[in-house]
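Quick one: structure for this chain?
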Amino acid sequence: MPDRPTVVFGLDGASYGLVDRWIEAGDLPNLRRVVESGVRGDLESVLPPVTSPNWKAYATGKNPGKIGIYWWENVDVENRRVYYPDERKHENVEFWEIIAESDPVGVLGVPTTYPPKPVDAFLVAGAPDGENDGYAHPPSVEDRLEDDLDYRVLKTGRLADDREAAAEEILELIDLRFRAARRLTEAYDVSFLQVTTFYLNSLHHFLWDDEYTRRGWEIVDDHLGRYLDGECNVVLMSDHGSNRIETAFHVNAWLEREGYLVTDTGVPDLFHRAGITKDRLLRVANALGVGRLARRVAPRTLLNYLPSDEGTVDREGKTENVDWAASDAVASGQGPIYLIPDADDPRYDEVREELVAALADLTDPAGRPVADAVYRGEDVYAGPYLDDAPDVVVDQAPGVHITGGIGRDEPFTDPTADGWRAENKREGLFAATGPDFAEGTVDDLSILDLAPTLLHLHDRPVPEDVDGAVRTSLFAPGSDPAERDVRYRPVDGPARERRRIRRVARRLDL
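Got it. Here's what it folds into:
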């Protein structure tokens, strides 16, 4: 075990643009201590800057082309479907698994870790894709958390429905994550602890710099103070940042207006006119305490046809409402666009170049650009899942919220109409302090760099297939991690494949 443990605070959606004002006002004294005594900088996420795939990019040090997850949905053009490839979440080894080969670790609350992998010592999966049961390894951890803390992974309320009650519940859940981590580390002596809170980002999205958001950060700050006077290294990081929304760009409405997308939303439109929406159904189910059950048992086809309160159809629901044969393109939210013609089709290059040029020049009604940059998929991603990648990737401009639903009439609307006040951006937050970390600022730090850097901090070999780099400049001059050579290890492909097959077999009870 290394001389001193590492504690990582994972803060979904955190960025300096929001919290600097509270640091300067004295509301976050412990965060101030970290940024003033250690090293800080922006942390660039992978595109798109979204919880999924960025937590996977952080955990593995790999770009989405090696993970096979590109948003909260993948568009499978060949098979004419929109889906989320859950089975890919656990295909790659995460850096804390490598640390756990020699030293016990604790991981709590990280999104995209459900169902939990076995590690030494514990792993508690996080929201928003987790569940309120089967979320911990070993199972005794789940029993302990529920008995001692009435722990739960998922919230029940929605900020769009009942602002005060939902915000209070979120504050409780933020606090619960850190109390649970403290309780578990009393029982398990871990060399590495990762405690993450996803619901901080819900406050950013719906409330931005509201009093509730500040209170959420104050809870984080209070728990942070408990780790600053010990002999541990402390790291703060986020999967992406946040910024205030100025315009909502409904990319599929724009694709439809420009003739690239054809939809048939007659059934969802009929439901919407009758007042039958997915949001309303789930509000009733949540009020009755059966929200998660409703999502599990409701017929998938029905949920695919039910619109939101705004009349749009999202994610898997788009499968049934896109006219695939008549369309050239369909988009996910926050950046990815998929072309429906095959890459061998003579029209493929023509359509893609048209889209890249048009989106690069597109502005909202106030003359603000929609994109900071527009990329071809192969310029952003690399790896065995490149064929599944979006063909065009929009890096949305500051203040732009790109929605991914279909069913809108206008490409641009008032962003507050959907309840959001802030959107994701690529510049997240990084800060670290402790005996092994340097002081000052760091530039050009990628979320992909953290996995190899934390492995090196724990004197563990870095897999040769990671995309990030060990950033030894983050470490204090003369410290052990600053001075020792980086070690690498080959990728054990066959063994990894055998582990993946065993996991699939366990899920299927084979």
